[in-house]
Amino acid sequence: MQMRIAVIKGDGIGPEVINQALRVLEVIGEKFDHGFSFTEVLAGGAALDQYGVSTPKDTISVCKESDAILLGALGGPKWDELDAKLKPEMSLLKIRKELGLYANIRPVVLFEELIGASPLKNSIAEGGFDFIIFRELTGGIYFGNKEASINFAYDRSEYQDWEIERIAQKAFDEAMKRKKQVISVDKANVLETSRLWRRTVSRVAQNYPQVNLEHMYVDNAAMQLLRNPKQFDVLLTENMFGDILSDEASMICGSIGMLPSASMGEGKFGLYEPIHGTAPDIAGVNKANPIAAILSAAMMLRYTFELNDEADAIEQGIKTTLKKGYRTEDIARNDTILGTKEIADKIIECI
């Protein structure tokens, strides 16, 4: 089977980490006798510099003709002076909207080998943890009407019940494969959108009687992630709350360079990306952690292509590499520090 993958390497450290993920996929192809077809297209700052627009029509066309997308981070300070609507970061919102990618899925795993890199005290981090965040991706405040003048601005947050239903269904479906527990995050004591969110999620839950549903205010959820992350299994949230909580969750895993993500709609098509930014301060110096990008490739194999053994091989290769004491700088303590390419070399050796 020839698997068609659109590749958007992005800006800053994006090309460096995506290049290592592509190397890992090529090794997986050789090991398991699969064919991958990679088509590189531009978006974000790289597209702005070359074409004058952050999301060329050809990029959207290639993505729609592919089975999946592998994406690096977009944007950076180079384009900070542009009008907000023209900034390269807006390209990702457009791609998600154009392709109907409404469900952002972020596994949050603290590897046992990285407990020392977590800012949590050992009594909390001991044994590691493993939960998954389902964030609604195409509604809420990021996509509502906006207006601004010199001394006034507003951003409108709005949801329709069907937008909430479809992300809730994905979260409950995942819960059925795990511990049958969903914690839904909102601010229903203050916000009308959150009251709609809570009512709709509760209604969807009636179709999943085996799953235990708990509602939690977003400020409490932020606290509980630090106090007792092991209580979470499937965490369901609207767009902005999910953006903030998932970045918080990444840091308790040791580094934002460790977390992958998938953005999906209906069916198996998905966009896969590390959750970190472009990190221009370390771009081009072989320091960036490529593990989140490599884990994103593993997610792609698992979710889009249903190649679980292949995804397992990548994840096990990473665990073995960490167990041997190899680290990039962001997760190192008293370990052997390797560069972006060199740690990918070790992961490939283990695979």
**How much helicity do the residues have?**
40-55%
Largest beta sheet: strand ordering? 2-1-3-12-11-4-5-10-8-9
Shape: globular
**SSE ordering:** EHEHHEHEHEEEHEHEHEHEEHHEEH
CATH homology superfamily of the largest domain: Isopropylmalate Dehydrogenase
Note the main sheet. Answer: 10 strands, mixed
Residue fraction in strands = 15-25%
Count of β-strands: 14
Give the arrangement of secondary structure elements.
Layout: E1 2-8, H1 14-32, E2 35-40, H2 45-51, H3 57-65, E3 68-71, H4 90-98, E4 103-110, H5 122-125, E5 129-136, E6 146-148, E7 153-155, H6 161-177, E8 181-186, H7 192-205, E9 212-217, H8 218-227, E10 234-237, H9 239-251, E11 260-264, E12 270-274, H10 291-303, H11 308-323, E13 326-327, E14 336-337, H12 340-350
Parallel strand pairs: 1-2, 1-3, 3-12, 5-10, 8-9, 8-10, 13-14
Antiparallel strand pairs: 4-5, 4-11, 6-7, 11-12
